[in-house]
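Hi all, long-time lurker, first post. I run a small reading group and we've been trying to get comfortable going from sequence to structure in the token notation. Rather than ask abstract questions, I figured I'd post a concrete chain and ask someone more experienced to write out its structure so we can walk through it together at our next meeting. Sequence below, copied exactly:
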Amino acid sequence: MNVIFLHPELLILAPVVAVGGWLLLRNVSAPEIIFPILDFWPEDTLRSAGRQKRFPEWPWMLILLAAILATIALSSPRLQWRSVRSAASSSVHLLALARSKPGSSESVDVFVKAAPVHDGSNYTLVIAAHHRIIRRLISATALTQGCDVTFVPAAPILTIALMQNNHTLAQLALSRSSGMLKVSAHFIGSPPPAFLRLLAAMPSISFHGHIRKHGLWIIHQRKFNPTILRGITDSAIILLGDTPGPGLRPQAELMLTHPQTPATVSRERLMRFVSSSGIMVKKLIQAHFNSSWYPLMEVDNHTWLAQSDDATRHITWLWLAGQMNSSWNTWPHHASFVIFFANVIAQLQSLPGSVRQGHWWRSTTLDAAGAQAVPPITPKVKTLNINIFMAVLICACLLAAIFGFVNVNRHVR
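-- Answer (accepted) --
Happy to help. Here is the structure in token form:
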């Protein structure tokens, strides 16, 4: 609560009136009244009259106070305060985290915590997993301390809403984190040193694992037969140079007259934050593609990086028109080489698969998940004009002063 003034520049009048009025009242005194009996003591009479002139009479002081209040009222004072919000309308912050149940791939445990919540009230927690809706009645005490909701279906995305009286207080989405998911790297043909350096620096990569899913295959073999990977699913397969693939037939080698920079022709998910600036291509392999392939980058109207997707097996095929060394191109020494294959590995980790012990579901951005939180309510500011109270006080001072003058004259008579 505070006092504001619409015209604060007029406040300078209050001290001017106070000082000027006090100096004027110092010269004002009550009229000198001499009774006949005082003629016997003239000296005492004079001393008494001198003492009366030192301080003004109290009615005059009330008039001075009324004048000061009037000058303050000219600046239009206002009393301002913020309205108090009820606990039900407060913005609630919801925290949630899910983890897989040991030994189970069908359900997860969800940990939920919320604040501020109203003591003694009950809240409804609604969890949506795929087409299943789970409702739990939770007390304010449990929400404040944090509680577990068990046997929630292990969907890739869990939408959690906290409700009270059919009103949504907060909402968020949890997506399965794949940071603990290992990707197995396999090489067919001579392992390119550029890929060995790249994958060795990534902690989520294991070399030559026995997992047939979530694998990264780097193949450089002129007589490669794609049918040997028939049982592979949820993987990325990278074909280098003259390595053939499904619907892909490499042809002649092309030496460029002058090194050229690739042009990005597609903005697919794998091309996020990938820039071709600074990459120089010296030679490449020309190839013939069927309609399932589409270019990501081109050099001199020739496909340099291409992609093909097998949706039924969740396989991404990638073809690079050359080997990854300095005699062919400078991409392995460029930052976008790391960014591109980090995107490939991230896509492998996000592919659907069976839930294992140690998997976590963490909060994602609300906009991306389509969830919305209740926006915070701005408290209302209320203002009270106190001029009317000051006017009443000024009138009271003036009436008291008039009463004082009348009372003095009555005693004189």
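A couple of things your group might point at:
Confidence is low (pLDDT under 50) at residues 48-53, 84-89, 365-378.
The chain is about 25% helix and 35% strand.
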